[in-house]
Amino acid sequence: MKHVSLGKTQLLVPQLAFGALPIQRVSAPIAVKLISKAFDSGIRYFDTARAYSDSEEKLGVALADVRHQVIIATKTLATDAHNARRDLEVSLSRLRTDYIDIIQLHNPEKVPDPE
């Protein structure tokens, strides 16, 4: 699968990603099967968000044994650093990982101060 450089991050990501929004609509066993099938098919980039109900938990279960082989991106609706940090801690727990590769601001009204 072709990889591309993600902006100025020096992170190489696959051009094809698994967007986790739809898995909030299916049961955990079905979601785990879908995520596992995606991984087995070569998908290594998984995108989710705190706002996607239980998708972080489902990804966490499905990717627990292969975490070091995938890139996980999630999003926060937070508009300040305090709440963004809080969301990050929740996401880490739900995704069953000690790091997230990419965290994004989810549809911000304005770009918050990075400090």
Overview of the structural elements:
The chain has 115 residues and is an alpha/beta fold. The chain has a single domain, classed as Alpha-Beta Barrel (TIM Barrel). Helices cover 31% and strands 18% of the residues. It is built from 3 helices and 6 strands; from the N terminus they run βββαβαβαβ. The chain has helices at 28-40, 55-63, 81-94, and strands at residues 3-5, 12-14, 18-19, 45-47, 71-76, 102-105. A 4-stranded parallel β-sheet has the order 3-4-5-6, with helices on one face. Helix 3 (81-94) links the parallel strand 5 (71-76) and strand 6. Helix 1 (28-40) packs across helix 2.
- Give the biggest beta sheet: 4 strands, parallel
What's the CATH class, please? Alpha Beta
* Structural domains: how many: 1
Helix proportion: 25-40%
Give the N-to-C terminal Cα separation.
36 Å
Q: What order do the strands of the largest sheet run in, or round the barrel if closed? A: 3-4-5-6
Query: Rg to the nearest angstrom?
Result: 14 Å
Task: Give descriptors for this structure.
two-stranded antiparallel ribbon, 3 helices, 6 strands, alpha/beta, TIM Barrel, 115 residues
Q: How do you describe this structure in short?
A:
This protein is α/β, with parallel strands linked by helices. 31% of the residues lie in helices and 18% in strands.
Layout of strands and helices, then pairs:
Elements (H helix, E strand, L loop, with lengths): L2 E3 L6 E3 L3 E2 L8 H13 L4 E3 L7 H9 L7 E6 L4 H14 L7 E4 L10
Parallel strand pairs: 3-4, 4-5, 5-6
Antiparallel strand pairs: 1-2
